[in-house]
Amino acid sequence: MDDPDCIYTIYDNKCSKAGITGKWVAPDLFSITAFRPILCNTRDEVSKYASTEYTNVHHVKFSFVFSDPILTDFVGETCAIFRRLRSVKATDEKIDFVKISQSYRSTIRTYLEKLHDSIASGTDETLIERHKNHITQLYYTECIWHLCEILFVDRVASGMIVLKLLEWIRFHIPQSERLATELLIKGREADAHEEYWNVVRNLILQGQVDVARALLKLHSSSESLTFQIADQVLKAMPIFNNYSGLPVQKFRSQWQYWITDTRSKLSTGVLRDQPELEVIVHLAIGDEATWREQAKSSNCWYEYLPGFLFYTEPTCKFFELGTFSAQWLTLWMEAHGQKDSVPMKQLDRVIVSVMENDMNQVLHDIQNINDNKWFVTHLTDLLLLCNQLEIIGEHQTNVASELRDSLVFEYGCTLMGQREFWPFGVDYLENGPPEGLGAIEMYLSRLPIACEEDAEQILAVAKSRGITSIERDVCRVLSARYISNGDYGKGLIWGVRSQDNIYVTSIADIFLNYYCKHGEILCPEVLSQIASKMFVSPRLVFLVKYFDFHQFYKRKEFPQAAELLINLLDSRITPEFFWPTLLSDTIPLLESSEPKIPSKETTQIIHHLEAAFVPLVEKLQNKTAVNGEMKTPILNYSRLEDIEELIKLLRMAAARNLARMLIIENTVL
Fold first, then answer.
1. DSSP H helical segments within 95-224, as ranges?
2. Paired residues of 57 in beta bridges
3. DSSP state, 534?
């Protein structure tokens, strides 16, 4: 987030000579190509760069942060929270937005711990450095999210926020509390530790008065009058919370009385012999000079802000936070010797905007976090659903909903472009703007398909969302891949699933051509599986029926085989190139010693031979003569070398079978 700008060098002669232009192709992809700027005074002439060399298009793609193996599950876990939020929203059930927000933060904290563990046990310096960057990004995200949760999601009726801000700073800057725990374990030897007074002072600065008092009681001089007075002062300090039952005015009256009384005691010099105690009490009564001095030791401007409010404006409400935080920021800058401004990290600037309730600026700034817009998308979605987001557009209307839809759509598109994350992208796109469903259909058709599992997953997603047009493309792609690899059986199965008649016809032709040339049926087990199914592609019907004919013939069920063969001849769905093979199959049945084909069916065979096959051969022979070819095209698909010989054999076999069948059928026994 605070990294310097990255500079990429493109080595392209034409770009260096002419100039460049660029365009966003996808949310994470920017394309650059050579471009000669055309101005109003540019001469209208052919560019000197035209046709001199190839024009390259260079793609600059942003890395996907969550593709790091340690973070891959982060996308799925947060997507589950996103889905749960949308599903509850779809019902009338009351939504616990704070719980939803805490679920997001809990997931972030889990992966922060995983990253810390990885660094602790790692040896690869490059990996360690990358994981440190991830930690910085996730820490920024969780810190800002927690603050937004306090100020916008977990809105209490009274609007009192100081105690919640104390929890926030204690959670994100816990060093003093951790050291305090160690000192408390030491017991009476605590004050011997070199950091003892720094810890006590920092606890007071963070508003942890009770823990600070516990440490003071461990001091070797805790029984002295000075320590006793300091402890009584801190113990008597009024603390305002929602459960005290006191009206604000009454509390402020008690609080002002306590401050006046404490100042009176300090003026007597009762704590002068213990300067550290005197500083602590001055902090507790909100002494500006003391706070300005202590602000010099803070690492960031907001570190002591909750504590400062705790001691100076304990009843601060949400709408007053911007004013009071600005006052503290001015004091903090003065402490650092800067009257107008002081260099701040990106996180510091975002927190300024959050305190000022400038959500437009907040959402603009957090898009700079290198997380592929995960944070801005999910925070915007949550704030919009709990009615805590208002973005005023150029026409003075609230465009928060449009912003949310745009971010969800863009994040969903980013996920769809990642091979292992696309199923999650579907969830975001279908819960985004109306064009999300169209984007789902487009991305599903472009997803790489490496195996059946990929195809089945894509088809299941498409079917569950009513996208039927994708099935044809997916099945056809996988079918073509299997066929190109020689797996014709699976190629046919997936081709049939595509329900693309033209494509299925081309596959069926492969099977028929193979039989014509080799005399073997490809993948008979697959054909037997699909034989019982109903089809509307004529070529596939022909293939399956022809397979059935062979099955009958193989089982010596000749009457059924002959009947099916005649039906195929009558069906008029026989491919031209398969006529020689189909008619050749009738010869063994016609020449069989035991009659297999009756006279009527024999007459049909003769009819198909003379009325269909012979004219087809003559037409192709004429075409061959015109083109100067050596072989009739129909023989290219057959093992036959002489078509005239086939016709002669068919005529003789049909005539002999017809003669004997007429004698048999007309003989009276």
1. 97-121, 125-148, 162-172, 175-186, 196-205, 209-216
2. 33
3. -
